[in-house]
Amino acid sequence: MNKIISKEYFSANVVKFEVEAPLIAKARKAGHFVIVRVGDKGERIPLTIADADLQKGTITLVIQKMGVSSSKVCALEVGEYITDMVGPLGKATHIENFGTVICACGGVGTAPMMPIVQALKNAGNKVITVLAARNKDLIILEEQMRNYSDEVIIMTDDGSSGNKGLVTTGVETVIQREKVDLCVTIGPAIMMKFVSKLTKQYEVPTLASLNTIMVDGTGMCGACRVSVGGKTKFVCVDGPEFDAHQVDFDEMLMRLGGYKEMEQEEMNKIINN
Amino acid sequence: MNIAEERAQAWREELRGSMKAKERSSIERVHMPELDATYRSHVRNEEVNLGLTPEQAVQEAKRCLDCANPTCMEGCPVGIYIPKFIKNIERGEFLQAAITLKETSALPAVCGRVCPQERQCESKCIHLKMNKESVAIGHLERFAADYERISGKISVPVCAPHNGIKIAVVGSGPAGLAFAGDMAKLGYEVVVFEALHEIGGVLKYGIPEFRLPNEIVDVEIHNLQAMGVHFITNCIVGKTISIQDLEDDGFKGVFVASGAGLPRFMDIKGENLVGIMSSNEYLTRVNLMDAANPDSDTPVYKGKKVAVIGGGNTAMDSIRTARRLGAEKAMIVYRRSEQEMPARLEEVKHAKEEGIEFLTLHNPIEYLGNEQGRVTHMMLQVMELGEPDASGRRSPVELPGVTKLVEVDEVVVSVGVSPNPLIPQSVKGLEVTKWGTVVVNQETMQSAVPIIFAGGDIVRGGATVILAMGDGRKAAKAMDEWIRK
Ligand SMILES: Cc1cc2nc3c(=O)[nH]c(=O)nc-3n(C[C@H](O)[C@H](O)[C@H](O)COP(=O)(O)OP(=O)(O)OC[C@H]3O[C@@H](n4cnc5c(N)ncnc54)[C@H](O)[C@@H]3O)c2cc1C
Ligand SMILES: Cc1cc2nc3c(=O)[nH]c(=O)nc-3n(C[C@H](O)[C@H](O)[C@H](O)COP(=O)(O)OP(=O)(O)OC[C@H]3O[C@@H](n4cnc5c(N)ncnc54)[C@H](O)[C@@H]3O)c2cc1C
Ligand code: SF4
Ligand code: SF4
Ligand code: FES
Fold first, then answer.
1. CA nearest A63: which of A101, A16, A110?
2. With an 8 Å Cβ cutoff, are A221 and B281 in contact?
3. How far, in Å, CA of A166 to CA of B422, rounded?
4. Three-class secondary structure of residue B373 per DSSP
5. Of A57, B190, B229, B401, which one has the greatest count of Cβ atoms within 10 A?
6. Which residues span the domain enclosing A163?
7. DSSP code at position A90
8. Which of B199, B240, B426 is the mutation pick for testing A, counting most A CBs within 10 A?
9. Cα-based distances in Å from A228 to A94, A242, B315
10. Which helix (DSSP H) or strand (DSSP E) does residue A151 occupy?
11. Nearest to B260 by CA among B422, B441, B475, B452
12. Distance from Cα B7 to the centre of ligand 4, integer Å
C-alpha cells in the first residue's frame, strides 16, 4: 500500500502524483519504472518513475488516461492508496553527454519521456524535444518539457498548435538543420517505427523505449517480449530501451493489439455503468 | 524414540496383530472420490479430488503392513514417518496422524495433493513387490492434514523465546515458507520478502485451484504469521533492496528461495504471434490475476482450439485450465511418448477424462498467423523414439519429411523454466552453474557467500514442492548451527 501525497492535473487526462515509496525512491534511476495495481481485481500496469524525492521518500508518476487501469490510477485522490506498487524495474537509461539529442515523443510516450529529457539536460546535452499529437488539445506536458529542453517543437496533425505535420517532420527538420548525436523516441509503436525508419536513413543512433504489454514486470511471463536484432528480448528486464534500428516494430504493433477487443469491452462496461 | 522403538509400542503391536497381513494386502486400493469429468471441465475453480471420507481413510490405512523396514520412507525426500501416521489413521487418531506428518513436513496438505507419489513414496511400497497396488500414501496424507485443518484444531507450533536475531527470506514459495517456519520455531525474527503482490510462489500463481485450492496455502501462511513471521510483498531483493541493504539493516542470514521463474521458449518461427504465450503468463493471468473472472481488469484469451506444448505438470495445468475456460479442442503436444511424460500420473489421467487430446511424438517447428498476427496454425514435426539418452529416457528423433498442419487459435508454451537470474546477477561472489542455479553445499545449503543459504528451484532448476520444502528445512537447521557457532 503506497499513499498518495499530492495530485496535480496537467490536463484533463494527465495526472501527476507524488506517492510514498521510500525504498523505491532510494533505489531508482532515470528510465526505471514501477508496476502498480489498483484494487483487488486490478491489473498490473507499468508506469515510469518520473522523479524521486529522497528526503520525503516519495516518487513521482505522470499518468495519462488510456483505458480502464490508467483511469483507475488517475481517479485516486490525495490520502488514498495505490494497492500494490513494485520496483524499480527495468534497466536504467544510459545517460551521458552525447552532444545534441532529439527527444521525439507523442501520445502515451510523453509522460515517460519527461524524466529522460530531464536527465539528459542535467548531463549537459543540448536537448531538442519534438512533441506530437493529433491536435492542440492533446498536447500535454508542454510547459514541463520547455523547462528542461533547449528547444521544443510542437507538431500537430491539423496544425492547430505549432507546426502542421507528423512527429517525423519535426525530427527531419532538426536533422537537416544540425548535427544530431542521438535520438530518443517514446510513443505509440507506429510512431516509433516511423521515427526509427527516418533516423536510420540519416544514420542517427536511436533509442526507443518500448511500451509493450506487461504482467509481472520481472521477467517471469514473457508477455512483454519483442524481437530485437532477430532475437527475442523481454522488455521488462532487457529494456525498456533498445536500439530502435534493431527493433521489429511490425511484430510489436501486432502484439500490442492483442487484447484490444477485450480492453474495449472493459472500457464500455465502465462507461455504461 | 527411534523407528524400531516406536514400532514396538503396545498400540502399534496390537494394531498389527488385529489383522493378518494377507487380509490387509487383499483389500482393494481406495479410489479418490472426484468431481464428474464433464462437469468439472466447465467449472473454473472447484477442486477435482474430493478427499477420502474417514471410513475410506481407515480402510485404506488397514492396507499398510506397518513394515519393520518401511521402504516407502526411503522414497520420500523428507523421510516422513509413513507407517506411524498411517497407523494413527487406522486407530482413528487423525489429529495424531497430522502431528506425525508435521514432524518432518511443513506442508502436508500441499504435498499430499501435489507430490508425484507414484515416483516417490508409493514407488517403494512393499505392495508393489507383491504385484498389488501401493498403499495410497498421498491420499492418506491429504486426509490427515485436511482433517486437522477442518477440525479447527491446528496447533500453532510452540516457538522458542525470541533471540532477537533477524533473518531474511527471499521468495515465499514452499522453500521459503518451510524455512521461515523452522526458523521462527527456533526463536528467530523472520522476514519474508516477496516480489509479487501475493504470498505462496508457484503454489499461488502456478498450480491452479482445481488442484490446490488457495485456501490450503493461506492456512499455512496464517499459521506462519501467528508464529510471528513477517511478510513483505511487492519487494524485490536485488531491485527494491539489495542483500547489502539487508546486512546493513542487521539481518544475520539470508535464505534465497527465489525459484525458477524464467520461462523458456523454443525459438521457432512465428513464436511471437498473438495468442502464443508461456505457461507462466497464461497461469499467472488466470491464477494470480483471476483474469477469467469477469470482475477482473486483467484480460486472458479464451481460445477454442488450444495447444499446450510440453508434458510436465505445468503443461497439464495449462491445458486443463484452457478446457475450463471454454476450449472445445484442447491438445497436449509432446515430443516424446506418454511414458516419458514428467507430469504426475494422476494429472495425465484427469486430463484425459476431461477430454484433452494427446499428440505425443509431435513437436512444433513453426507457427502461422493471419493478417492481424494472430496464430491460426501450428506445423508439427512427427517424431519416433530413438535410443535412450543420458537421462535414461528414449530420445525422440524426427521422422524426416513427416509433418502435420493443425489449426489452433491459442498456444501455450510449457517447455520448462530457468532459475530466476535476479539474485545471481545482483550478488557478487555467488557461485552459479552454467544453468544459472546457485551452487550450495549439499549438506548445509550454504552458498559461496557465507551469510547466503539457498534452496528450492533456484538451486535445483525446476523440481518439486517437497524437494523445495525439504531444502528449506535443511537450510534452517544448518543456518541455526552456523549462527550459533
Ligand atoms: C515501461 C513502460 C513505462 C510506461 N510508463 C508510463 C507512464 O509513465 N505514464 C503513462 O501514462 N503510461 C506509461 N506507460 C503505458 C501504460 O502502462 C499504459 O497506458 C497502460 O498500461 C494502459 O492500461 P489501461 O488499462 O489504462 O489501458 P488499456 O485499456 O489496456 O489500453 C488502452 C489503449 O492503450 C494501449 N495500450 C495498452 N497497454 C499499453 C501499454 N503498455 N503501452 C502502450 N499502450 C498500451 C492499448 O492498445 C489501447 O489502445 C508505460 C508503459 C511501459 C511498458
Ligand atoms: C504450473 C506448475 C505446476 C507444478 N506442479 C507441481 C506438482 O504437481 N508437484 C510438485 O511437486 N511440483 C510442482 N511444480 C513445481 C513446484 O511448484 C516447484 O518446484 C516449487 O514451487 C519450487 O519452490 P520454490 O520455493 O523454490 O520456488 P517458487 O515456488 O517458484 O517461489 C519463488 C518465489 O520467489 C519470488 N521471488 C523471486 N525472486 C525474488 C526476489 N528477487 N525477491 C523477492 N522475491 C522473489 C517469486 O515471486 C516466487 O513467489 C509445479 C510448478 C508449476 C509452475
Ligand atoms: S511428502 Fe510426498 S513423497 Fe513424502 S510421503 Fe508425503 S506424498 Fe509421499
Ligand atoms: S512400504 Fe507400504 S505397507 Fe510398508 S509401511 Fe510403507 S506404506 Fe506401509
Ligand atoms: S512483463 Fe512478464 S516477462 Fe516482462
1. A16
2. yes
3. 41
4. coil
5. B190
6. 100-256
7. S
8. B240
9. 18, 8, 28
10. strand A151-156
11. B422
12. 13
Confirm or reject CATH 1.10.1060.10 for domain B3-151, answering yes or no: yes
**B contact test, residue of A32, A66, A86, A251 with most B CBs within 10 A:** A86
- The 10s digit of each residue's pLDDT in A178-197 is 999 999 999 989 999 999 99
A263 pLDDT band, cuts 50/70/90, is low
Q: Mean pLDDT lowest for which of A157-161, B77-81, B138-142?
A: A157-161
Place of cell 491446528: B154
Rounded to two decimals, the ipTM of the complex is: 0.92
Name the pTM for this structure.
Answer: 0.93
* In chain A, residues 145-164 whose CB comes closer than 8 Å to chain B: none
Task: Report CB contact under 8 Å: B298, A257.
Answer: no
For ligand 2, atom 33, the nearest C-alpha belongs to B171
CA nearest neighbour of A182 among A110, A238, A143, A128: A128
Instruction: From the options 3.40.50.2300, 2.60.40.1930, 3.50.50.60, 3.20.20.380, give the CATH code of B166-260+419-484.
Output: 3.50.50.60
Break chain B down into helix, strand, coil percent, rounded to 5: 40, 20, 40
Q: Hey, CA dihedral for B332, B336, B339, B343, is it positive or negative?
A: negative
Helix axes B54-63, B82-90, angle to 10 degrees: 130
CATH architecture of B263-413: 3-Layer(bba) Sandwich (3.50)
Nearest CA distance, B240 vs chain A (angstrom): 6
The alpha carbon of residue A68 is apart from the nearest alpha carbon of chain B, in Å, by 7
Of the partner residues B195, B274, B295, the one whose CB lies closest to the CB of residue A86 = B195
Cα separation, A222 vs B313, in Å, equals 19
Do A30 and A63 lie in a common domain?
A: yes
